[in-house]
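Sequence in, structure out. Go.
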Amino acid sequence: MTADDAASGLRLADLVAAFSLATDLGLGQPMEHVLRSWLIAARMADHLDLGEESRASLFYVMSLAWVGCVADTPEVASWFGDDIAFRRDSYSVDLAGLPMMGFSLRHVGVGSPALSRIRRAGTLIVTGGKAVERGLMSHCLSTTQMAERLGLGENVCDPLRQVFTRWDAKGVPGGIGGEEITPLTRLFHLADVVEVHHRMDGFGSAVDVARARRGK
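Output:
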């Protein structure tokens, strides 16, 4: 399938938008979370004057970024039980360092007997969450492969490979941060989080979380 294939009469953008509605549910968010995030990111892109080509690519980055959840779900569920609840709650935490560890330990083995939870928590600490990192890498790989099969180019695939990076280079894959992160990925990071906080607690909350996580 190619990005300009119109034989079916279905636009690629419409197909991808439909993917995003299913993704909303997997994130534990109301439907149209992803589309609302795209609108926020698109307005920021206009403000930054990134140009029409980047704006078009941004739509596909925002719409496909979380589709790879199907790849990391087995790993996330094996560690944290309800993977949807885990993703939903993750929006309240800056996912690195002690906050990330505390969040993970609160969720590890949810639904399992207490002894099993303790054992898994110990394993998580000892291994530094390497198994979870592998799941996140699988997520990025799956999403990028889907974008390639849809006929989307490197201007979409490159940002999708960096979905779990962080500005401070403490994300996945490790060591990638700052200006090495593509502008479209940075817009995804910001818009995905502030949409949730804006919807739940208003404009002030969205501004507060953006300021609190600046440089992270």
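Check: The two ends are 37 Å apart (CA to CA). The CA atoms of residues 65 and 129 lie 22 Å apart.
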